[in-house]
Design a protein that fits this description.
By secondary structure, this protein is an alpha/beta fold. It has a single domain, classed as Alpha-Beta Barrel (TIM Barrel). Helix content is 31%, strand content 14%. The longest helix is centred in the middle third of the chain and has 17 residues. The chain is globular.
């Protein structure tokens, strides 16, 4: 059985250079591919290097996260175009809109997002999108286009259930993180029970968005000074610190190991009432349809346009509320 992580940040410096060890465990757990997302110019080279070292596993993704658009250089567009040329088959991301974090310039944020979305459309690349408290605006921009014909991923979708089918109709896929297994995320769990099966993906968002402690299978130590008492978790994002604190992004249970993907799949089977082999086969088909396979994979599949959305099956009872 092959597992697919639609969204993580394996390049993150909080892993302390232990990527080889992390990847070895991911492989043992059956992880077949992962999309590793850059968030700003500073980490694009690290993402590209990981994709070079592990071409059979990693699909690189390059973009400007809405939290960091204020840090962009005057040549950021040229730099993004260059790194995409150097990495055929990459994803444009993590890009998006955020009306939750204070201090962001909404005009600049939207301008940067729209330009990146257009770039993805022009190059026939999928996009990986972050959105917080801006779902109406996001839908408006996706509907207006241009948007990638391949589709877009709405990572850790936390929007209203009423927008699922309209967003699916403009090419959206929806990825479920383990963080939504926390008790307080009841609304998000219910929302995912309405996602069309052919648009469902699964993610870790490692090193962030840790599962509840009792579900964590693989643990990593917290960085020095990242004590729980000093850094309360933020219930919106699943990371420590305030919305304006870039440095404080450690999950409440410590760093999220990317091999916890297997535990997120287990959570998804309970939530959706589907047998694991069934769910894994569906997620694999969805992942390959949107992202394709890593360049070095033994049996590359051409990516296709999004599958037409169909209504989700009737919600079934879940084991954990």
């Amino acid at each position: 059985m092959r597992l697919y992580d639609a969204h993580n940040h394996l390049q993150d410096e909080r892993f302390g250079g232990r990527q080889e060890e992390l990847i070895a465990l991911c492989r043992r757990e059956g992880v077949a591919a992962m999309v590793v997302n850059g968030a700003c110019e500073a980490d694009w080279p690290a993402v590209a290097e990981l994709a070079r070292r592990y071409p059979d596993l990693i699909i690189p993704s390059f973009g400007y996260h809405p939290w960091y658009v204020g840090e962009r250089t005057t040549s950021w567009r040229e730099n993004l175009e260059h790194v995409l040329r150097e990495n055929p088959g990459a994803v444009v991301g993590e890009i998006g809109l955020d009306r939750w974090k204070p201090g962001l310039d909404p005009v600049a944020q939207e301008e940067v997002f729209v330009w990146q979305l257009r770039l993805a459309a022009e190059r026939n690349l999928p996009a990986s999108i972050h959105c917080l408290q801006a779902w109406g605006k996001l839908f408006e921009l996706l509907r207006a286009g241009p948007r990638p014909a391949r589709g877009v991923l709405l990572h850790s979708y936390g929007g209203p259930v009423e927008l699922i089918l309209p967003l699916a109709e403009v090419g959206a896929y929806f990825s479920l993180p383990g963080y939504f297994a926390h008790e307080r995320k009841r609304r998000q769990r219910e929302t995912f029970r309405h996602v069309p099966p052919e648009r469902l993906l699964i993610e870790t968002d490692a090193p962030d968005q840790c599962l509840p402690e009792e579900r964590v299978k693989h643990r990593l130590p917290e960085p020095a000074g990242a004590g729980r008492a000093e850094r309360p978790v933020n219930s919106e994002t699943g990371v420590h610190g305030s919305a304006g604190d870039r440095a404080c992004r450690t999950p409440v249970c410590g760093l999220n190991h990317p091999a916890n993907l297997v535990a997120v799949y287990a959570f998804a089977t309970e939530l959706l009432g589907r047998p694991l082999p069934d769910l894994a086969a569906q997620v694999e088909a969805n992942f390959i349809r949107l992202f394709g396979r890593p360049r070095g994979a033994a049996t590359p599949d051409p990516a296709g346009p999004p599958a037409s959305p169909s209504p989700a099956p009737p919600p079934q009872s879940q084991t954990h509320p």
